[in-house]
Structures are given as structure tokens and as C-alpha cells.
Amino acid sequence: MRERRAGYLAFDLGASSGRAMLGWLEGPVLHMAEVHRFETSLIERDGHLFWDVEALEQEIWTGLQQALAQMPALRAVSVDSWAVDYVLLDREGRPLRPPYSYRDTRTRPMMARAFARVSPAELYARTGIQLIPINTLYQLLADLEEDPAVLRRAERLLLIADYFNHRLGGQPVVEVSMASTTQLMNVHTRQWDAELLRAFGLDFPCWPEIVPSGQVIGQVRGHPSVAVIASCSHDTACAVAAVPARPGTRWAYISLGTWALLGVERTTPILTDAAREAGFTHEAGLDGTIRFLKNLTGLWVLQECLRAWRQEGPVSWEALEAEARAAPAERCYLDLDDPYFFEPGQMPERIVAYCRQHGLPVPESRGQMVRAILESLARNFRRALRQLEALLEAPVDTLHIVGGGARNRLLCQLTADTCEVRVVAGPAEATAMGNLLIQARTLGDLPEGYTLRDVVARSETCWIYEPHQKPIPQPATER
Predict the structure, then answer these.
(1) Is the separation of the CB atoms in 238 and 386 below 8 Å?
(2) CA geometry: angle at 103 spanning 97 and 170, to 5°?
(3) What's the pTM value of the predicted model, to 2 decimals?
(4) CA atoms within 13 Å, Cβ hemisphere of 25
(5) Where are the extended beta strands (E) located within 160-304?
(6) Residue 41 binned pLDDT confidence (cut-offs 50, 70, 90)
(7) What positions carry a catalytic annotation?
(8) Are the beta carbons of 422 and 226 closer than 8 angstroms?
């Protein structure tokens, strides 16, 4: 990397780890380099789970300094993260408490209480958002019940990525892709739904302005030449912006990490009872698009197993995949979306107990357990894909898998075989790529005539998996 090259910095915060990724353009090709990686640690306190935002902020500033050391001519920075969790700020802009994690159990009874005020059908018609207990709405209702004073004291509510963009020097705003996940933004107006806020008793003065994706919202504190950009604050929105889909294909995507988000990109919502009952959601995407998708459990169960096994000794993702390839197919299908698997801890033991309770073959080795998880994921993908095709009233001919899960070749082939559809795997770093390219486009740095997806296709080698065939590489487009 030439020292004076101008570029961009993306902070991609996942539910298990975060990283700082530098990016720079050479014509229509994006180059990336990881400069810092860190854990996104949970705090367990008084029976609840919180995010350690102070530790995360320290890591972000460390990553920024390392990036500036390698690229003094840095032009911009942007943070993306998981959705729904939020930070409540006091008058001085300080957190009133650590933000709860969506995996905390306090929201479990809140959906029923919400539906006593607003019916599920009306809530879906107004927001288009899937009815699941982790949503910001139900977290706020838990606050309202357990600690209403904290909401009255809050001067501002910011979701995770927006909070860190603000701490870097940006205005205290919420980017639209993140706002859409709260179940409090109107799907039609893309503004906070005032009627819903009143209906739920949440019409406090802490709601920030919603801004479009790709907006400059300030300059980095201490580094006024570096812009803070609200790219897409929601990590999945960044990932979908970097799907290297070809024009004319009927494509869908799976953004596969801790969660698996399976869906399509649309310009209009599908607010039918069938869509609501099937659990599909409408989240805002880049350039006014809608990510019509279903939230599924992704690699979470496998991540938790890996965490448990690493307490016994070193083990890698590659080793687990090799063991799974060698294990026989037992047709041990786990319902990975069962709340039984939602909370962290003792995952291998829970899988064994689940199999015994449901009369399934009990995995006798680590490889068998991993294969059961991967086959169950592929089966869940098929079910959701068939539901999606029914709602679209059209088939899907290409399924793009992006995110870390794109590296798992066994899972990609199982998905192609089980779903009976071509799978294109990659880029694995789609979220960071989307974040970086939105920054570049905002600053007018994309080469003329090239879209974000054009640049992704020229920057990344993907793998094609046809059903029941060997995978083949799809090299980056001729440069």
C-alpha cells in the first residue's frame, strides 16, 4: 500500500467480533486490508446481557489510529453494526446505562402486551417489520415497564452503529436502514410513525432525525479532513448493496453470519397477511430499495459450539468443515430457530438434549454435530426460499450467499443441493465492501459509469455451486 493513497475506513461490528477495514480504489477495483480486529464482548450483570460500548469505542479509536498510520490521506469513515439494540444518551451525550443485548430475555412477554394496544396486522401494515421479540419496540416497552425514568431522562436514542458514528464526530442521527429495523418507522413515509409512538406511550423527545443512506454527517473529532458518513448503518444493508448480481437474473440473497437474512431487493412492499404470517420483513436498503427478507438463525449455533470446543483446545473453522465432510449424513434436522437455541452457553450439550427429546439421531462426534447443523441450515434455507417464491409469485434462479458463511464450501454445496438452485458464494467481506463503496460513491470517487455492484464483480472471485455438482470459481470480471 503506498503511504499517500487516499481511501476509506469501514468499521464492521458483528455480534461476536468487529474489525476495521481499509479500502482504496484502483480504477473500478476495490482493494481492502484489515487493520484491526476485536471482540464485541457482552457484559453479564444482575441476570441481564449488555454490550460493552466503552470497550468498543476504545477499539474503534485504536482502529482509526492504525488506519491513519497506514493511510494518512484517509478521506472518510463509517460504522455499520447489527440492528435493534440502542443507546440512550443524557443531556451531555453520555450513555445513561450500557445498552441491552437483543439476546437478553427481558423482552419475552412484551409482544403480547404490545398486541393488546396495536394488532399484529396493523403493526405490520404500518411498519412492514417481522414480529419478533428482539425488535427495538419490545425492548423499549420493557424499559417503559421496568425503568420508565430512563426514557424520560433520555435526550437522544441512537442505535449501535449510529451511536459510534456520533462518537466519532457525526451528528446524532439514525440512518434509514437502521431506523427501519426498530418496528417504529413507517414503511411508506420512512419517518418515525407518530401514531405508533403515541399508542405505545413512547412519544418521548429522544427520537433523532432519520437520514438517507450515504450522507456525510460530520468530521472525525481531531481529524477534520476525514468525513463521517452514514453509509448504511445496518450491516445487512451494506452486504446487500455489495451482492454481485447480474442484470436480468432472478436473484435472491442470503447474508450469512451469526444470522441468516434470506430475501430479495424490491421497490414496493408486500404487506399481505401471507407475508406477515410467513415472518417476512421489510427493511430499508440503499437508494430507496426495500430488503424483503426473512430473519433466520445463521451460524450462531455453530459459533457457540466452536466457543465451547475451544475451551478444550485449539480448533479452526476449516477443521470443523473437514470433520463434517467426513461424517455420514444422518438426516438429523434441528429446528435452529427454536428459542431453545437462542441463548448462549453449553450449545453442544443442548444439541444432544434436543435430539434425545425429539427422537433424532444423537451426534456421536464433533464432525457429526457440525454436519447436522449445516444440513439443518440448508433445510431451513429451502423452506424460506420456497415461501419467498410463493410470495413473489416467481421462481428464483440464483441464490447469492455473502458474508462469512460464503467461505463454508460444504454449507454452500448443501444449500445448492437442498434448494435445487444455483448458488454464487461471495464476497465473504460483503458488508465491509458495501460500506466502503457507499463512502466512495458519496464522495464522488467511483469511476464514471460504474455501479457499486460493477466494482464488486471486478474486485472479487466468487464460487459457483450447481446442485449436485462440483463447485467452480467465478473469477473477478476482466479489469
Answers:
(1) no
(2) 50
(3) 0.92
(4) 23
(5) 174-175, 210-211, 215-220, 223-230, 251-256, 259-266, 280-284, 290-297
(6) confident
(7) 235
(8) no
